[in-house]
Q: What sequence folds into this?
């Protein structure tokens, strides 16, 4: 089924999504990769405030290339999600409801998704230049020293993704 969703991605909306749904996402999402996830979990362990909201938010596993003149962002293809698996359950416990990446997820992440009513979306790998056209604004909000792995606040419009694992654990990869 094809669906259009505006952020925030509430748990109620997440529960309506099924593995295999095509989604066009509009609104605000955040990007973070390995190094940023490591810092986020270190901040949590230290009892520090996080630099981004997590409740009802979506994190895109992305490390963009620099933008060309007139563009909001450079190539914006997904990175392999399994590299964030050791960090994802802690963030899902804080209310994160969506993740965008490519590839499989661990059983621990899937169990946490079911417990916390979260969804894993896939963006098409290798289509970063095309996906970047759906990103209308990109602003570094944390960990600027990480370069492409900094956390970005992204404004997206009709960003095309597919529900790969829904909050019931239904999984397109299986």
A:
């Amino acid at each position: 089924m094809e669906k259009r969703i505006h952020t925030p991605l509430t748990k109620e909306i997440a529960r309506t999504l099924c593995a295999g749904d095509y989604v066009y996402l509009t609104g605000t999402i955040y990007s973070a990769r390995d190094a940023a996830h490591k810092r986020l979990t270190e901040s949590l362990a230290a009892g520090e405030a996080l630099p981004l909201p997590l409740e009802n938010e979506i994190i895109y596993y992305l490390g963009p290339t620099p933008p060309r003149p007139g563009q909001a962002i450079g190539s914006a293809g997904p990175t392999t999600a399994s590299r964030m698996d050791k960090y994802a359950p802690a963030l899902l416990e804080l209310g994160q409801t969506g993740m965008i990446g490519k590839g499989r997820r661990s059983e621990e992440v899937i169990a946490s998704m079911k417990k916390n009513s979260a969804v894993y979306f896939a963006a098409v790998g290798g289509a970063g230049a095309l996906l970047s056209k759906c990103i209308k604004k990109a602003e570094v909000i944390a960990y600027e020293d990480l370069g492409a792995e900094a956390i970005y606040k992204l404004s997206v419009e009709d960003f095309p993704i597919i529900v790969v694992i829904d909050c019931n654990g239904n999984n397109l990869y299986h």
User: Anything to note?
Assistant: The mean pLDDT is 95. Residues 44 and 94 are 10 Å apart (CA to CA).
